[in-house]
Amino acid sequence: MPILVLGLGNILLSDEGVGVRVIEALQERWTVPDGVSVVDGGTCGMDMLDIIASHDTLIVVDAVKTGAPPATVVRLTGDAVPAFFKGKLSPHQLGLSDLLATLRLHGEEPKTLVLFGCVPERMEVRLDLSPAVAARVPDLVDRVVAELRALGAAPHPNAGAHGDGEYT
Fold first, then answer.
1. For residue 108, how many C-alpha atoms fall within 13 Å in the half-sphere facing its CB?
2. Residue whose C-alpha is closest to residue 153's, from 71, 84, 20, 59
3. SS3 for 37?
4. Taking the domains of the chain in order of start, what are their residue ranges?
5. Residue 82, C-beta contacts closer than 8 angstroms, at least 6 positions apart
6. pLDDT tens digits, residue range 6-48?
7. Quick one: which of 2, 131, 113 has its CA closest to 61?
8. pTM, whole model, 2 decimals?
9. CATH classification code of 3-155
10. CA 44 distance to own-chain centroid
11. Phi and psi at residue 127, to the nearest 5°
């Protein structure tokens, strides 16, 4: 069962880049087994169509506006993911919604869809995450690792990796 872990976001807009920062931390600390792809999707567009279509399971990590306090982490699954992204936080999320709709029309949508989102605190032009959102990166990495384990695709810690690094 091919699995894609996709981090989305614009790292130029502080917390909007949390998905990409989670992917960086995941790759630094963990090695995923064969059949699992880890991709920095940035501000993805339709060019991601073939990449997503080739996977049975899609795990997305991104900034999300839910109305909850900043740095709140959410998990959405299935049809709740594309429905949530219609007109939400940023242009790339509309791109994800469009991608999922196109895949559905072609019968190539992932069978399993999971989103781990984090509510941003700031969206200004800055390369670093806010302290509150940066503090959530280890939890988001742990959630992705737990999801992979539950799918039977347990990652292995990299030699010398530790979980108490600074995420900015």
1. 12
2. 59
3. strand
4. 3-155
5. 96, 97, 100, 101, 113
6. 999 999 999 999 999 999 999 999 999 999 999 998 777 777 7
7. 113
8. 0.87
9. 3.40.50.1450
10. 12
11. -85, -15
